[in-house]
TrEMBL record, chain A:
It is a multi-pass membrane protein. InterPro entries: Autophagy-rel_prot_9. This is Autophagy-related protein 9. The chain crosses the membrane at residues 61-86, 124-142, 288-312, 370-392, 404-423. Residues 751-761 have a biased composition (Low complexity). Keywords: Acetylation, Autophagy, Cytoplasmic vesicle, Endoplasmic reticulum, Endosome, Glycoprotein, Golgi apparatus, Lipid transport, Membrane, Mitochondrion, Phosphoprotein, Transmembrane, Transmembrane helix, Transport, Ubl conjugation. One of its GO terms (biological process) is autophagy of mitochondrion. Residues 642-668, 705-810 are annotated as: Disordered. The keyword Chaperone does not apply. Pfam families: ATG9 (PF04109). It catalyses: a 1,2-diacyl-sn-glycero-3-phospho-L-serine(in) = a 1,2-diacyl-sn-glycero-3-phospho-L-serine(out); a 1,2-diacyl-sn-glycero-3-phosphocholine(in) = a 1,2-diacyl-sn-glycero-3-phosphocholine(out); a 1,2-diacyl-sn-glycero-3-phosphoethanolamine(in) = a 1,2-diacyl-sn-glycero-3-phosphoethanolamine(out). The gene is ATG9A.
UniProtKB/TrEMBL annotation, chain B:
The gene is ATG101. This is Autophagy-related protein 101. Transmembrane segments: none annotated. GO terms for biological process: autophagosome assembly. One of its GO terms (molecular function) is protein kinase binding. It is found in: Preautophagosomal structure. Belongs to the ATG101 family. The keyword DNA repair does not apply.
Amino acid sequence: MAHFDTEYQRLEASYSDSPPGEENLLMHVPEGAKSQWHHIENLDLFFQRISFFKWFRKNGFTCMLLGEIFELVQLLFVVGFTVFLANCVDYDILFANKFVNHTDSSKVTLPDAFLPVDVCSARIRDNAFVIFVLIISGVFWLHRLVKFIYNVCCYWEIRSFYINALKMTMSELPYATWQEVQARIVEIQKEHQICIHKKELTELDIYHRILRFKNYMVAMVNKSLLPVRFRPPVLGECVFFTRGLKYNFELIFFWGPGSLFENEWSLKPEYKRGGNRLELADRLASRILWIGIANLLLCPVILVWQILYAFFSYTEVIKREPGSLGARCWSLYGRCYLRHFNELDHELMSRLSKGYKAASKYMNCFLSPLLTVVAKNVAFFAGSLLAVLIALTIYDEDVLAVEHVLSSITLLGVCITVCRSFIPDKNMVFCPEQLLRVILAHIHYMPDHWQGNAHRYETRDQFSQLFQYKAVFILEELISPVVTPIILIFSLRRKSLEIIDFFRNFTVEVVGVGDTCSFAQMDIRQHGHPAWMSEGKTEASIYQQAEDGKTELSLMHFAITNPQWQPPQETTHFIISLWSSPRSLIANILGPSTLTSVHFGRDSSLTNHAAAGINDGASALRSLSPVSSSLHLRGSLSAAHRAAGHTSAMSKGMAGSGTDARTVSSGSSAWEGQLTSLVLSEYASTEMSIHALYMHELHKQQSRGELSRHTWHRQDSDESSDSVPDEVRSEPNPHSRHFPRSHTFPTTVASPSEGASSQSSTQRRFSGSGTSGGKAVRSARVPMGGWAEDGQAAPRHHDPLPEESSEDEMPPHIHKVNAVRCVVGMAKLLCARVLKINLHFCPPILTLGYITKPAV
Amino acid sequence: MNCRSEVLEVTVEARQVEEAMLALLHTILLHRSTGKFHYKKEGTYSIGTVGTLDIDCDFIDFTFVRVSSEELDRVIRKAVSEFKDALSNSGSDGMGQISLEFYQKKKSRWPFSDECIPWEVWSIKVNVVNLANEQERQICREKVGEKLGEKVINVVEVINRHEYLPKMPTQSEVDNVFDTSLKDVQPYLYKITFQITDSLGTSVSTTMRRLIKDTLAL
């Protein structure tokens, strides 16, 4: 045999072929599900429940349980007692019109007045209406019971989520802010992956999920898409927006049968394409019609339900404090109009509640003098009668036994109470303009034309649409079942095409969140309004702009309430440019007066007058905040709070108060003791107030001289083109651009002649730095059926605005260099403004507000 | 919502529907199946082996790989043939959608039934075309083969991404994550549903559920 010499050889014992045995198999260790909180199915609902639990069940689980149980019992009692009173009492005996024959005594006892059981039940059985009411309230009660049981189960789960996953005990929950809870949720996402699309959640994601549909509603109200303003023949312009109507809107848009949304998180794909919008609009219109008809058919049932609901909810309140009907409350429309994008219920409610006092004071300024005179006299006569009756009663109580004396005493008392509400407080000063500013500091939004017109009745009437009488609110709720179908059928149906266009144009899909309203992204570039400080940053067409500076103010609000949030790049510039200005202002104004006056004394353009008045200004600002006493801390705190980011501007600005020994020592207890985040959030709301005032002021300066357009009188956009934003330019500008005048979107394209009419260039200017590039981007984004821009052909100029503050046009690095200058300028601006509100009688200072400009 | 969704679209002839669907569903399931788990006493486990099988299609120039489990194949075939029948009986324009949904169960307390929470949904949209002559059928045969090849690569790409998968369960929880009813293979819990043409609007049942939930909530 030939021996083949090859390189291939058998490997010796390089591995052993042991028989397959258990010990050699690859072993794995299961991770197991560490908690049940990974991968939650409906995150929207889950987050909603978390926030709800946080805010409404903060007194603990037992309290909630007991409260709900008592409510159920109360309901049962009210219905039962009402029926009993109506059917089982012999009132003749009670009123002593009939005599009972008693053998032992002549006294009438209560049981005498009760009818026997069989008579009573027969009476109930014969009365169809009572049966009907009983059935409805029975269904209502059962519904409440089931809801209660369901809620208890759900919240038990949420409670264990708080305890086990978020590691918060129930006792510390009331002291934690939402931001803390949120931070923990973000933290546990990394561990448990409750959302499977992303490794990390951001604050904005959570807000988007909780407020997905609410953001749509806010945007629709902002763009005046929903038919809530009406002009009935006698009443004049009024707003009708009730819970029933809102429920129907949500039913149609978000979750009803055949709604625009496929499920809670995504819009149906056919609504995202523009192809068959007309057909979709037709379909929507017919659906609205059907829902309207269903509402009409169910009207009697809903009406009885409403009445019962109102009776059960409000009788107790009215009995306890009868004045509450004359009190006011923020209307449902107001809550939609005033709400920021991405603002949770509790945030909205807390700032509206802070504005409540000022708002009711403002409304009370407007008492009709005629009514006052009448009321004074009526009160006088009623008062004298009452006095005599009471005096007689005191002298001899038999007077009470005379028929109707007790009732007339009661009636007179009520009469006097009513009259008194029409008599203004003697010590009140009529200064609506200042009050309106204080209100603005809390509510953050108001139409432009209110400023300077606060004393007018028109302004008051319009404000009362946001801030209505409680009684009116209840009345509206009661008539809502009748009016709602009419609105749906005749008003909303006509808007179906606009609604389809709105949802298509303003829906964006965010990874890990689903479809959200694009306004809620708070992107200045897409939805900014040039008249609201996003001049040069926005590329939005008029159709895309959010009105009333909603995008800008919402952005500020969100950035302030969520300091951990990392905004996108261009947004950061906007925020920094704002933060570096008025924040330091606060420090300056609220710091020791000596230091401030030194600051301003250096500046020649301010007179000594102004420096002397600064303290007044500071006090006005202090009044904004409920924690005014610790406002000194504000500047230094916020510096620590948000140290990252804008340090350079900050440190300069803070020099006034931050390093001042007195300030720090005054707040030292707070530093050492409970410097909880509650305090911080309180400061944040104050800061937001100041920002809101500042932005409104700047907006006013920017649009001065123009009859700026405002949303308040914006009418139903499909009616005619006279609801156009009338922007009349005060001074000729060679670079005037054409803007579409027509509101008749979506179908009509504004005719060139219409568009060519004189329009403001200052307010509606786009920053087309590169004309072609900018245009290309925008024309791609011009929504189909949106406000057609006839200005496509016209070149987009970027014309420098004379009164423009320099900061907006500077790149950020120059910004920082100029920070100090800006600070001084802004400080002047705000001070002048504050002075203006405070010192009405000081004309020379009053004019300061008009001459100062942000940049020195 | 809290789940990934992938959409595949194919245009096939009527007789190719069954094979095309089988090819795609089996491809996905191949990557979403493991061997049977054998738990050991100290809480560890070993994984059994999984065989694979090449399947040649009759009406398409295409070969795909599937898990060699007859049981699994039977289940899938049953679902697909139901889909095919429904599609041919519908008589409409021949649009349909079959979806393969992977979910995990979550145990709930007494008043509620166990929740099935999907974490990945594959929707395959099918468009059935009618061809006039044999030549076109030949072209279609090749073209569908190519398309399916692309889809398979697409599927593998998606599956290769590092994304959320349910954590490997302990012995007591294995039924919440894996379908343990089969003898030879253990896929993630899945559900196959189909739908002929886009029915307009949400179905009545979801609306009712939503109505009830809404009245109960908050």
